[in-house]
Amino acid sequence: MTSGHDELRVRIAGETMQAIPAIVELTCSRLGIPLANQRDRGAGLLSYPDPVTGLLIARQLEHGAAQWARNYMRDLREDGESWQRIGEVIG
User: Fold this and answer.
1) For 44, left (φ over 0), alpha (ψ -120 to 50), or beta?
2) Structure confidence at residue 3 (pLDDT)
3) Are strands 45-48 and 37-40 parallel, antiparallel or unpaired?
4) Mean pLDDT across the stretch 47-64?
5) Cα–Cα distance measured from residue 71 to residue 88, given in angstroms and rounded to the nearest whole number
6) SS3 annotation, 17-74
7) Is this prediction's pTM over 0.85?
8) First to last CA, the chain
9) Is the CB of residue 88 less than 8 Å from the CB of residue 80?
10) Most buried one in 13, 46, 80, 85, CB count within 10 A?
11) Coil, strand or helix: which one is 78?
12) What are the b/e assignments for 65-76, b being 16+ CB within 10 Å?
């Protein structure tokens, strides 16, 4: 069963995968952490922090995104959407 949001999900996935390295870079810049490593993650060379810092940032993004997702689900419920409908939206 498709929810009609499949195309949007694909587009969002592509954009967020491109945004993650930018968020890591911004976080490092704000903290004064150098981007001393270069790795090819399939889209050419990207500058990265040391792997420990990168992992910590990525995990924080994961936890923060989960909180935002819960907030958006709460908003949908408060707006009268059913859990079934929310499940359809997130696939």
Assistant:
1) left
2) 62
3) antiparallel
4) 94
5) 17
6) HHHHHHHHHHHHHHHCCCCCEEEECCCCEEEECCHHHHHHHHHHHHHHHHHHHHHHHH
7) no
8) 9
9) no
10) 46
11) helix
12) eeeeeeeebeee
